[in-house]
Amino acid sequence: MVDVARQLLDELMGRNRNLDPTASAKEVSWADEEFCPYFLVKFCPHDLFVNTRADLGQCTKLHDDEAKRLYDEAKPCRKKTQYEEDFLRFCTNMINEVDRKIAKGKQRLLLMNSKTDGGRSVPKQQEHLNALTEKINKLVHEAEEAGTRGT
C-alpha cells in the first residue's frame, strides 16, 4: 500500500519531491534495477487482467515515464536486447498459460454438456480418464518408494 502511494506521489510531484532545495537531484538512468523492465519496453503485464483469475498482482518495480523516454532514446545495446527478449518470453508464457486455461475450460464445458445429454456417460473419455488416473497413481507410488529409498 505504501509503495502504491509512493509511486503515485512520484508520478504527480516527481521523484525528487523530498529533496532539500539545495541538494542536487539524482540522475535518472533507465538501467537502474528499480525500474520495471517490462514497462520500459512496452507495458507492464501486471497492469493486465486486474481483478480477474489471471491477475498477477501489483508490480514491485517503478513505472517512470522519464526512464521510459530515456530507454526509447538510448542506443541499442545488450541490456536493451535482454529486456526486450525477457518481455517477449514473459508475454509468450502468459499467452500459453491463458490458452491452456481456455482449452481446459472448454474441455470441462464439453464434459459437463455430455453428462447432461440424457444422463449417459461417454465410455471412451471415461476409459482415458481411468488410464490417466492409474498412470498418476503408479508414478506417485514410484516417487514414494524412491523417497523411502533415499534416491
From TrEMBL:
GO terms of molecular function: mRNA binding
One matching Pfam family: LUC7
Gene Ontology biological process terms from the UniProt entry: mRNA splice site recognition
GO cellular component: U1 snRNP
Superkingdom classification of source: Eukaryota
InterPro entries for the chain: Luc7-rel (IPR004882)
Family classification: Belongs to the Luc7 family.
UniProt-recorded name of the protein: Putative nuclear mrna splicing via spliceosome
Lineage: Eukaryota, Metazoa, Ecdysozoa, Arthropoda, Hexapoda
